[in-house]
Amino acid sequence: MMSKPFFSILILFWQSEQYLQRCMRSLQAQSFQDFEVILLNNGASQAPDPEILATFLNLALKQISSETNLGFAGGNNLAARSASGEYLVLLNNDAFPEPDWLATLHQAALTHPGHCFASRLLQADNPALLDGEWNVYHASGLAWRKNHNQPTANSTTELRLVMSACAAASAYPRSAFEQVGGFDEDFFAYMEDLDLDMRLQLAGYPFLYLPQATVRHVGSGSTGYRSDFATYYGQRNLIWAFVKNMPGFLFYLLLPAHIFFNLLYLVAGLFMPSGKALFRAKRDALRGLSAMLKKRDAIQSQRKITPIQFAKLMDWNPFSPLVKILARKASSKDRQD
User: Fold this and answer.
1) Is the dihedral of CA 268, 271, 276, 277 positive or negative?
2) I need a surface site. Which of 77, 133, 137, 278 has the fewest CB within 10 A?
3) Count of structural domains within the chain
4) pTM reported for the whole predicted model
5) Is residue 59 part of a domain?
6) Integer Cα distance of 73 and 53 in angstroms
7) Range of 198's domain?
8) Is the domain of 196 the same as that of 274?
9) Counting Cβ atoms within 10 Å, is residue 58 exposed (0-12), middle (13-18) or buried (19+)?
């Protein structure tokens, strides 16, 4: 009987074959090799090239497929059901780990049992810039990647507890993932990692940022940068994540700020190319509130940490959202130029 691998690496394939071979080569080059790869064809019109996959014979590769696109949430849930590893590792197929990435995750898992882990993401085409370090969650209910587009030299150098890991390259004890029910498939895509991670935090599974766990990431390799798709799901799901997960008195304390910033987004939507998608997002978020409130009851009834403990993981700087918005505008201008 074969022993179970330590890691099960979940990779979703959808409209991004140009990255898959490089992703698989980066796994082939890992210094820690006790893992399996579960590759899901997530409703792509054309399956991954079998001739390319045949070149990775040394990898324990399981291929599964879905006839329809289940989104990031549903796709990873399906892939996770085929996993046998002690830890689930999510890896976008436009993400390319450095050779010691899994070794770093393995050592952290041994040293910090019961934790989940965030990686340091560099921009694949310009590793002098960060793609992000972890997901920051602001007291208003807004979220963003820490140090996105900042010089890699400014990286955080110490281990630290954080709210959430970017699921382009993250790791979770499989038992914890299953305990909280995996991803919420109503989210489909965007903010689904934040929602999962907040539920894991509430269930007593902390997140640790590992600055030595380095991955190069293209970003928006399948959906496009600031597309209508990304705007719709991101703007809808940030409301749902707040409603479901903000614990105890914090929900009522911070609800006015959350409403205020969502109204600001609606005003901004009048001047955005993706404004129609944003308006649809807010409308559909309100339509789904009843279902999210029911989920909130279940999540909060099983909470293992206090609202104060949760609050310590949040960004309370009132100017942070403004700084982030200005940085995004500058980044968008740079892309246009």
Assistant:
1) negative
2) 77
3) 2
4) 0.93
5) yes
6) 24
7) 7-217
8) no
9) exposed
